[in-house]
Amino acid sequence: xxxxxxxxxxxxxxxxxxxxxxxxxxxxxxxxxxxxxxxxxxxxxxxxxxxxxxxxxxxxxxxxxxxxxxxxxxxxxxxxxxxxxxxxxxxxxxxxxxxxxxxxxxxxxxxxxxxxxxxxxxxxxxxxxxxxxxxxxxxxxxxxxxxxxxxxxxxxxxxxxxxxxxxxxxxxxxxxxxxxxxxxxxxxxxxxxxxxxxxxxxxxxxxxxxxxxxxxxxxxxxxxxxxxxxxxxxxxxxxxxxxxxxxxxxxxxxxxxxxxxxxxxxxxxxx
Length: 271
Hints:
Elements: H1 2-12, H2 14-45, H3 48-52, H4 68-77, E1 91-100, E2 103-112, H5 114-119, H6 138-141, H7 145-152, H8 162-165, E3 170-177, E4 183-191, E5 199-210, E6 213-224, H9 225-231, E7 235-237, E8 240-248, E9 251-257
Antiparallel strand pairs: 1-2, 3-4, 4-5, 5-6, 7-8, 8-9
Helix pairs in contact: 1-2, 4-7
């Protein structure tokens, strides 16, 4: 039916039909060309060379990379990638504004670590001898994996919001089992809200499963808030302690001590 209408229209008004057909064809061709150009521009925008050198760009799906120092430590320290990484440099983009009477000029700025930017081959800064690292840049040039983990697992002050401050809590938890799976445990070190200034409530709970028989142990204490903020994830609660003893390649190592020691066949219930 459509073909019959097209042929009849062509027979009745050949010039108008031909011009209309050419217009449709030209529109489709232009759209296809624009899509192709858009793909090329997008690929070029993602090019590591345009991002400041290097061979690979790591970016967040919705903006900045969360815990970028941890990501950098893993990329530089993992056995699978360490031999292939010559240099890695973090960078951050932000909008700045030049303000003068009656005018504000937006500028997209990118900042990075001078020595690392030069190491990855950023041609924009390669020849600028005056651009050198600041003391604060050392945490990026020499990444301490244990320090990165401590910064991620640090504890915080309860928020100054009445409806939330009374229920604020942070914790560390560990779980494991024996090789045969007959013994399993779940261990929690929790620090709660402040009953009074400078003090936090805290507790330790151990759930021990031996051949399906579950026993729970707990201890409660008050801890100095500033000590918790300064030392976490190293915690001391009611004679029980947890320590970050080391940070292996791709894994974390904690040591904990519980007091008093548990009997060989712990009873059911809280003790």
